[in-house]
Amino acid sequence: MIRKQILRYTANQRTNHWLVAILFFMAALSGLALFHPALFWLSNLFGGGPWTRILHPFMGVLMFVLFLGLVIRFWQANFFIHNDGLWLRRVGRVIKNEEEGVPPIGKYNPGQKLLFWTLLACMLALLFTGLVIWRAYFSAYFGITAIRWAMLLHALAGFVLVLSIIVHIYAGIWIKGSVSAMLHGWVSRAWAKKHHELWYREVTRDDTPERPISKKG
Description:
Elements: E1 5-7, H1 11-35, H2 49-74, H3 82-89, H4 91-95, H5 110-132, H6 144-174, H7 178-184, E2 186-188, H8 189-195, H9 197-204
Antiparallel strand pairs: 1-2
């Protein structure tokens, strides 16, 4: 009997993802509280200004460590393949939900892959710049110029990270079934074949020929 659904994410992978998501929101809110006086009221969520300053870097480091768990699990699936370039050239069809003629792709589409590597770059930038400006432990080892540049780059990386997560959330809601997959772990065979045909064929050993690729843009 053929199972009607396909496992996309295990319980451990889903737990890892949601822990990173929770820590991201906590680190983002505490970071915004420290970024500008107009947002300092957000520090009340963490027990006031002193506690916000204490907790923010620890939350950031923990978020990075847990994010590495996702990187270890998914980095191989996020390498770009030939079909990704063709998919990007036909992304307008994907947006219109007209995927006939769009090249089949693997477990993640090119947009998700770009997001993955952007998140990794931002996380690394936030980690290293955060260590430089972490006054309680490390900033004494750096000059004032290095600290100022680190603060600027830290804010920039945080801004890009927040924008990337907003895109991630929007795309997850827009593609019906994506959020459910991260909540419950399973997707339908029809969903997998429509959105990630190469991955579908890999996990099901279904040798059905790929859908024809249109030569039109």
